[in-house]
Amino acid sequence: MPVGVLALQGDFEKHRQMLQRLDMESIPVRYPDNLKDCSGLIIPGGESTTLTKQINYANLRAPLLEFADDKPVFGTCAGLIMLAETVDDDRVAPLGLLDMTVSRNGWGRQVHSSTEELKLSFSAGTPFQAVFIRAPVVTGTGPSVTILASYGDQPVLITDGRHLACTFHPELGEDCRVHEYFKRLMDV
Amino acid sequence: MKKETFDVKIGLAEMLKGGVIMDVTNADQAKIAEEAGAVAVMALERIPAQIRKDGGIARMSNPNMIKEIQETVSIPVMAKCRIGHFAEAQILEALEVDFIDESEVLTPADEANHIWKHDFKVPFVCGCRDLGEALRRIGEGAAMIRTKGEAGSGNIVEAVRHMRRVQSGIKELTLLDKSELMARAKALGAPFQLVRQVAESGRLPVPNFAAGGIATPADASLMMQLGAETVFVGSGIFMSEDPQARAAAIVQAVTYYDDPKKLAEISAGLKDAMKGIDMAEIPEGQRLQERGW
User: Which of A9, A45, A113 lies at the smallest CB-CB distance from B8?
Assistant: First the structure.
C-alpha cells in the first residue's frame, strides 16, 4: 500500500520525491477517500494556519483522527504542529496525536532560519544536516514520547512508537535516514 | 554564499507552495488574509491598482506599517523594494521581513542593475517575463521567481503569456544537445551554468509562482495548470466586492486547481470581481512589466 502525503498546501512534492528515492509508492491526499488506500500518512511543512483551514474545508479532521488510530503519521515542521496536543496559538487546531506542547515560530522570522547538524539516536553514521525554516519549538513532552534527536536542549525529532514528528525538514536534503525510520514504523 | 544558506532561502519558498500570497495595505486586511488561509502576506502601502491610478513615485512601505502587520499575523510577511534599491532592501532585512520582492510595481531606482541578492540573508523573489529574465534574477540570488503579469490590471492575459514563455523556454532547453547550450545561453542572455542546470533537470532551480492579474478562482486554477506552484493575488482581493469570501475561495482553488466540479462549487456565490483593464487601455511604455530586464 502506498504512503499518503497530505497535499492541501506545503512542500508535499518534496516528501513524495524522498519516498520515491526509497522505492516507496506515494499518493497525494486531498479527499477523505484517499486515506483508505494508505499504509501511513505524512503531513508536510507549510503554514499551520492554512493547513487548519484546509483540513476543515476538506472535512478531513475526523477521517485523519480515525486513520491515526492504527496507522502511523509523520509530521514535519507545520506537520509537527498539527500532530501536537497543545499549541500556543488559537489560530491553529492541532490533531492531538502526539503528547507534546508546541510553540509556533519559536525560532523567529526567516532571517533566523538555518541548517544545523544533528545526532540521530538510531543512527551511528555522520551527523544529519537539518534545515530549520521558521521552525516551531517543542516546549514539553509527555511520558509516552521518546526523543530521537535534540538541538541544544530542544527536542527536534520525537516519536511515541507509532507517530513521528520533527521541527526541521528532512524532505529538503539528500539524507533519507529520517524517512527510513518512518518506513520502519509503517512496517511494524 | 554558502550552499546551505541558499537552501534555507529556497526552503521557505518550498513551504509556500500550493498556497496564496495576498497583498495587504494594513493590519485589518492582513488579518482577513490570514483568516482566509493565506500562506503569506505582502505588506505594501497601496495595492498596484491604486498605484496605477495615483501615479507619482512608488517606494518601499513605511516601516511602522510593516511592523504593525508583523505584529498582527503569524504567517510570513513579505515587503517590496524598488528594483536596484539595495538600501531599501537592507532596511527591510533589518525589519526582519521574511521575503523581499524586488518589484516592478514600485518605481525603479536603477535602470541598469538589479540588487545583488546573494549578499542578503533574507530571501528575494523577482518577477520575470521569460526564461532568460528568470535565470538572470536567479543568477543574482533570487530564491523564488514569479511571473510579472501586469500588476493592478485584473487581467490574466500577461501572466499567462509570461508563464507560457518560461515553460516553453524550459521545454526547449531539455531538447537541445549539449553543444547547443552555449549559443542558447547567449540568446537568452542567461548565465550558462543555470542554462545547463535547467536543460538537465527540466525545471527552474527555484520555485516558480504566478503573479500579476489574478482576480478569480478560475484564474488561480489556470495559472496552476500552466505550471505555477503558488499564486500571488494583489489587487484582485481587496478591489473586489467581497474580499473575505474571494480570498477564501482563491485559497481553495489553488488546492483543488485540477478539480472542475470543486472549482464550480468554490466559485458559486461570489460577488463581482475587480473590474480590470484591457491591455489595449495600457499603452506600451506605461506597463509595469516593462520595468527591469
Answer: A113
Paired residues of B77 in beta bridges = B41
In this structure, what C-alpha cell is assigned to residue B246? 474571494
Per-residue pLDDT of chain B (293 residues; tens, 9 = 90+): 567 789 999 999 999 999 999 999 999 999 999 999 999 999 998 888 888 888 899 999 999 999 999 999 999 999 999 999 999 999 999 999 999 999 999 999 999 999 999 999 999 999 999 999 999 999 999 999 999 999 999 999 999 999 999 999 999 999 999 999 999 999 999 999 999 999 999 999 999 999 999 999 999 999 999 999 999 998 899 999 999 999 999 999 999 999 999 999 999 989 988 888 999 899 888 899 999 99
Output the CA torsion sign for A166, B79, A52, A35: negative
From the CA of A135, how many Å to the nearest CA of chain B? 10
Instruction: Name the strands in the sheet holding B208-209, side by side, starting at the edge strand that comes first in the sequence.
Output: B208-209, B144-147, B124-128, B99-103, B77-82, B40-43, B20-24, B231-233
CA–CA separation, A41 and A12 (whole Å) = 11
Q: Nine-digit cell at B228?
A: 505555477
Domains of chain A by range and CATH?
A: 3-187 (3.40.50.880)
Question: What pTM, to 2 d.p., does this model score?
Answer: 0.96
B274 interfacial to chain A (CB closer than 8 Å): no
What is the Cα–Cα distance from B145 to B124, expressed in whole angstroms?
9
Question: Does the beta-carbon distance from B17 to A46 stay under 8 Å?
Answer: yes
What cell was used for A136?
516551531
Which of B197, B185, B73 has the alpha carbon at shortest distance from A105?
A: B73
ipTM of the complex as predicted: 0.95
B158 and chain A in contact, CB less than 8 A: no
Q: Indicate the DSSP class of residue B210.
A: B
Whole-angstrom distance, CA of residue B75 vs CA of residue A47: 7
- Which residues of chain B does A12 touch, with a Cβ-Cβ cutoff of 8 Å? 17-18
- Active-site position among A38, A77, A163, A179: A77
The phi-psi region of residue A23 (left if phi > 0; otherwise alpha if psi is between -120 and 50; otherwise beta) is: left
Active site residue A66: no
